[in-house]
Design a protein that fits this description.
mainly alpha
């Protein structure tokens, strides 16, 4: 199967954006640096969701190229669980209970079972239908389907009273997670990506899509998981040294 250059490059760009965003996040929330309200709004309300959405959609595309999505998902999920234990110990005030790696791991495992059926759906129909369902369910974690300015269907409050339904998208009032990507609505975005991946895997996409124009970005994209695991520890070590040298408060040293 041909590699899809634009997918590797897009994921590489998302990785770079993620590293920059996490640097901003660390500076603001762990080291008390004031970036200003405008920067906070742009990065937290717009850029971060765009980065996460890109990762999820591209991961859906890439699922078509995996020999064993279930095994790949198990690996991803357990890396996510390692982050849960690490954050619960290192930053107990800000643990990660169901972050993007937990979500992607579960999504890959599910796709490992249903992919052979959903891949029969014409790619354009699948991408549009799953994409529309994703948009409609964006507010499920807030308790409803739809949008206040258009229509709204409130979901049963009992769903949000059960403490263990947060992975599905029904967090209780007391639930808190530094990084939170529930299956609803995000699995639908993942599935929209898998539909586009059907086109890429068939070899019928435009030839330019398969070309690699920026080899550096493609390389980063192919090693996204490793970079995700390592970038925060490396970033924190560097920030600790810089702030220590400046005589500013640090987290660990």
């Amino acid at each position: 199967m041909k590699r899809v250059g634009i997918v590797d490059e897009t994921r590489g760009l998302a990785v770079i954006s993620m590293v920059i965003y996490h640097l901003y996040f660390d500076l603001v929330y762990f080291y008390g640096v004031n970036m200003g309200a405008l920067v906070d709004t742009i990065l937290s309300d717009w850029w971060q969701p765009l980065i996460a959405g890109t990762f999820i959609f591209v991961s859906g595309i890439a699922a078509n190229y995996s020999k064993n999505n279930f095994k790949r998902g198990v690996t991803c999920f357990f890396v996510g669980m390692a982050f849960t234990f690490a954050t619960a110990f290192i930053t107990p005030h800000a643990p990660i209970y169901f972050g993007v790696l937990h979500f992607l791991g579960i999504s890959m495992m599910i796709y490992g079972f249903i992919g052979k059926y959903t891949s029969r759906i014409p790619w354009i129909i699948g991408m549009i239908v799953f994409g529309l369902l994703y948009i409609l369910t964006l507010n499920v974690p807030k308790g409803y389907i739809g949008f206040n300015w258009l229509f709204r269907i409130d979901l049963p409050s009992s769903l949000y009273g059960a403490e263990l339904l947060f992975p599905l998208g029904f967090p209780s009032a007391s639930f808190s997670s530094l990084d939170y990507f529930p299956l609803l609505p995000n699995f639908l975005l993942f599935m929209s990506g898998t539909s586009l991946g059907v086109l890429f895997r068939s070899g019928r996409a435009a030839k330019g899509m398969y070309m690699t124009r920026f080899s550096g970005l493609a390389f980063i994209g192919r090693h996204a998981l490793l970079i995700y695991i390592l970038h925060q520890p490396v970033t924190v070590v560097i920030l600790e040294l810089i702030f220590k040298c400046m005589g500013r408060p640090t987290m660990f040293i």
